[in-house]
Amino acid sequence: MGTIESTIVVDMAFYVLSIIVLAGAIGVVTTKSVFRAGIMLIASFLGAAGLFILLRAEFIGVVQILIYVGAISVLLLFGTLMTRDVEYASLTNNKKIPGIAICGVLLAVFIFVILTSKLDIQIISGTGGDDSYVNAIPYLAELLMNEFVIVFEIVSVLLLSAIIGGLMLVRENKS
After folding, report:
1. Fewer Cβ atoms within 10 A, N terminus or C terminus of the chain?
2. pTM above 0.90, yes or no
3. Which range scores top for mean pLDDT: 2-11, 51-60, 73-82?
């Protein structure tokens, strides 16, 4: 009986997180306030991180929260607040029809690929339907600290220089 209850809880969590992601994404593209769009983007990112955690990809979920919610969204909101026109974006946008057409074509392609795909995830994963949990975080940590240590250090120096550059932009000119 425990598996039925846990399945119901997981299903409910999936539906709630999906509603958060969809409502946030719709809010981003429909609101006229740039600041509110940024807040909706944060909600959508948090919902996507929750979906990653539900998929047992905790590392990607935490990275989603740290990078997208913690860095990118804060950078977007900070940039928005530094501009003069915070409340309203450019209201004279004549790109709605091409945007809707491109989104429609992409949606049709995605639906076509999903419906015609013969990809079986259980065969690829090698579990054959076994729902066993494999913790990939130690394996990723080993890869980052052994094989990709140079790339990891370069990314850390890049992020540090971005933080220092951001601080240099906001400090007052005392000359």
Report:
1. C
2. no
3. 51-60
